[in-house]
Amino acid sequence: MTSFIDYLIGGVSNGAVIALMAIALVLIWRATRVVNFAQVGQAMFTTFVALTVQTLTGSWALALVVAMVAGAILGVIVQFLVLRPMRRADTSGAIIATFGVLIALQAAVGMIWGGDAQAYPQPFDNAGVVAFGRIWPISVYDFVVIGVTILLVIALSLLFTRTSIGLAMRASAFNPEVARLSGVRVSRVLTFGWALAGVVGAVAGVLVAPSSTVSPTTFDILLVFAFTAAVIGGLDSLVGAVALGVFAGLVISLVSGLSNSGNAPVVALVLLALSLITKPDGVFGHHKARAV
Amino acid sequence: MTSLLRFPGARLVSHAAFVIIIWFLVMRLNDSVDPLANYYIALVAMYATAMFGMVILVGLSGQVSLGNGALMAVGGYVFAVTSLHWQTVPILGVPWNGWWSMVFAAVGGIVVGLLIGGIAARLRGPYLAGLTLGLAVGVPAIANRFPELLGGESGLMLTVPYPEGGYAPVEEEVFVDSSADTLSGDASTMAVPSADAAVSPDDMLTMDNFPTTDASAAVPSVDASVIDPGATDMSGVDLSGTGDLIDASFIIERWQAGLAITVACIAAFIALNLVRGRQGRVWRAVRDDSVAAAVAGISPAKAKVSAFAVSSLFAALAGAVFAQILSYVGPGAFGLGLSLSLLVGVVLGGRSSLLGAVIGGLLLVWLPEFVLSLSEKGGWGDQITNNAPNLIYGLLVVLVVLLAPGGIVGSVQMLIAKVTRRAPKGV
Amino acid sequence: MRYVLPLTDPVLSTRSICVTLSGLRILDDVSIGIPKGTVTGLIGPNGAGKTTVFNVISGFVKPDSGEIRVDGRKLKHIHPHRLTELGIARTLQGVGLFPSLTALENVMLGGSSRVKSGIIAQALAMPWTDTEQADLRERALAIMTELGVESDASRLPGELPYPIQKRVALARALVSDPKILLLDEPAGGISAGDMADLARLIMSWVPKRTVLLVEHHMELVMKVCDLIWVLDAGKVIAAGTPEVVRQDPAVLAAYLGQEGAA
Fold first, then answer.
1. Residue B279: helix, strand or coil by DSSP?
2. CATH says A2-119+139-291 is which class?
3. Is B191 inside a domain boundary?
4. A181 CB near a chain C CB, below 8 Å?
5. What is the predicted ipTM?
6. Residue B397 located in a structural domain
7. Residues lower than pLDDT 50 in chain A
8. In chain C, which residues have their Cβ closer than 8 Å to the Cβ of A292?
9. What residue numbers bound the domain in which B107 lies?
10. How far apart are CA B29 and CA A1, in angstroms?
11. What is the structure's pLDDT at A290?
12. Rg, chain A, Cα only
């Protein structure tokens, strides 16, 4: 029983990272109705940028900030060069293009930083916290991860509810035409959404990096988990993405702990398939029927 | 509407004749080149087989799938497991040979394709892509779940193929490199020569097994299959068996390429019949407008599932061929990288064209070689050389989607149409 | 008030159909009948629920309650793609052609319910699949000739003028040789001259076929319909011959009310 609880506790920080990546996917989906499969490629790129900064300066916080800026810039570049010129009719094209970006970004990372898995330095104490006479499966670093995630989620919800750009984003997502007519510069708002998603993805990358290694393809599995969480959450819902991201982290931690970590992808697949079978448009999503 | 002959059976005769001529010509070519070229031919044929399925699934029925590498894994593993464990064919009781494993791989592919297609038919664009992405990552990981049967992370070594074209279950003497022990126990990095990444156990997924980089390693399979004794213990293959020695004149790469060509031609025949007949129109109709298709009396769900089943059949056949080319199956060989390279190939070649699939296959094998030759001239570092092909693929995919959605074949068709001032055939 | 006309021989009828979509009552107790061999119109102001009636009949929308009868038999589960097997064909608002298929290929697909060979026979290009397609092709060409669009057979829909596209869509509906044709705004976006042709065409199908027509162009409706049902806000408010409906104060009020609002 203790081990069960330990695995659950240990899964929270993993879940936080998955939640962040899921948020990044949801932000872009809400803004442009595209699932950005390149998101983990962008995150991997910015994580390597962070690694370089950290190696040079030794500052974890500076590395995080630089990664966030790089994430925003990369997001804007991808949206400008790839998604904006896309023809609306070609829905398959948008999906394929984001995979093209993913392949190219991973190759670029391999070219610049090499294909080998590299260790990302631990910024904080990674040993289990000792309290109440035992060692808990959660470290100071885990608390940092969870804390940063909570801060980011609060910041995002404030952005959406309290600021004019947040209102404009919600309006554009809800009905671009009406938003445009009421004076919202929709295309700018969409670009802002991509930048924001880039920032969130970059944070997720830097946060998860120390607990695994970094290589061009390390984050692929994160994409699957994040997509699973985002889809079960309905792709439209930030709350859903957070809740199911954390939930996915817990499940994966349990499965990895009780059997072995190699089973985690299978579990993600089963979760994804089950949710899509029962709710083809996500649990929190609402499906607009095509007018006949 | 291009068929000139109009008698019952015209399509059968013309398609069969076309495919047989191609088969004959490519086989002649195969017999006249060196083993390395045989190996490339085998890879191209294998890719083409899988990508015929991608044309039907992605191009014609409009379902973007990242999962066809996983479907290839189904075929590869069914082939490997049946050929390792069966002496006779169950139920029928006749002695086993490799063709039976191919048949079972095909059946396995269809069954899994129907299963996944049943789920996929209910899903729209990004949801489907995400599900198939999950397949690409999740299915190879199933091998870890059953290490005894499927060989776990290190995969299964196969003692393929078979002499005299006989395709019999004789365990051939396999050249075991004594230096094998110096390599780590991670067989996936050996049998599929990887680019430059050390696979850490925590890396649940790696794209360094992007099979296009196999070609850049350019080592014909048998010599490349360095066998780790530890891995073979797990897979339960008896390598100490003293089968007949391989006939000196028997070139295994040539035989494998012949197999791959034959399978590709069978797949091409089926694909031609479907694509250039009513079924092709049905798939395109459902892709264009599923409501209008239903009104016309077509079941959109059935059409989508059938596209999945057919593409899965082709993927499984390609997977079985791939297993034989590599003499190995393992999670690394059938990872997300393989799925992505199939998507790359079919998009660049031409999403809706069977010829595009063949061109895509050529591109997947040729580009890494081309880059390698450039890098030798330019003296590039490994880091650049190994990643350049994927960088080019990624950028090309984006460019093609934006500027020429029809890929190479579609663009050439458009050009011809412009020159002859005729409307292009529907894409 | 409920309109139930004493219909002796309705080939198609709905009984007390109710549809609620996202909390809104779209159809409220709709019962209409279409007498065999007639052209029956279904009219009403925008948002009255006309197309929803079509969608219920063709299985795209599942009603909360009520039933559909064809030839007096109650239909249980209606699948859109099985409709042609029941002898019912419909057109879609706009054109709904497949942009990547030629006009002829579009029309041929309308006869899908006649195709008996399965995917394995197709995959092996069995000779009878050729025969089947050749027959279908001949039928399709014959109908396209009837509608005067045979010369556009090998063109893609995008290259054809809108009225021609509309005719191709009609041909696709006709190729399954339906007993009942549901036409959703066949006159939308076509010129007066084409409208006259359309009227002649529709009248030429009866009494062999029965036609149910949703249309905004009152001129066309009044000209071709034997019977008209009027919907407003999801309810049947009037029914009768064109002359009767034209005079009905409720109908006038419904249309004027809409104009007043607009």
1. helix
2. mainly alpha
3. yes
4. no
5. 0.91
6. no
7. 285-292
8. 51, 54-55, 60-61, 92-93
9. 15-335
10. 66
11. 40
12. 19
How confident is the model over A76-102, as pLDDT tens digits?
A: 999 999 988 887 667 788 899 999 999
Is B314 among the domain residues?
Answer: yes
**What are the residue ranges of helices labelled H in B95-165?**
98-120, 125-145, 147-150
Q: C28-64 as b/e, with b when 16 or more CB fall inside 10 Å?
A: bebbbbbbbbbbbbbbbbeebbbbbbbbbbbbbbebe
The neighbour count for residue B91, using CB atoms within 10 Å, is 6
Reduced to 3 states (helix: H, G, I; strand: E, B; else coil), residue C16 is: strand
Give Cα A50 distance to the centre of its chain: 17
Total count of domains within chain B: 1
Contact call for residues A112 and B388 (beta carbons, < 8 A):
no
DSSP H helices in chain C:
50-57, 103-109, 119-123, 127-146, 162-174, 192-205, 218-224, 242-247, 249-261
CA-based nearest residue in chain A for residue C93: A292
Q: Domain ranges in chain A?
A: 2-119+139-291
Residue type (1 letter), B254 = R
Q: Is C20 on the interface with A (CB under 8 A)?
A: no
- CB of C104 within 8 A of CB of C144? yes
Chains A and C form CB pairs within 8 A to the count of: 7
Window 191-220 of A: residues touching B by CB (8 A cutoff) are: 212-213, 215-218, 220
Tokens of B27: 């086989």
Which of left, alpha, beta for C125 (phi over 0: left; psi -120 to 50: alpha)? left
pLDDT in tens, C56-77: 999 999 999 999 999 888 888 8
Q: Is the dihedral of CA C118, C122, C127, C130 positive or negative?
A: positive
Helices then strands, each counted (H, E), chain B? 18, 2
**DSSP SS3 for B234:** helix
Give DSSP secondary structure letters for C66-81.
EEEEETTEEP-SPPGG
- Find, among A187, A138, A161, the residue nearest to A8 by Cα: A138
On whether residue B270 sits in a domain, the answer given is yes
- Which residue's structure tokens are 């408010």? C237
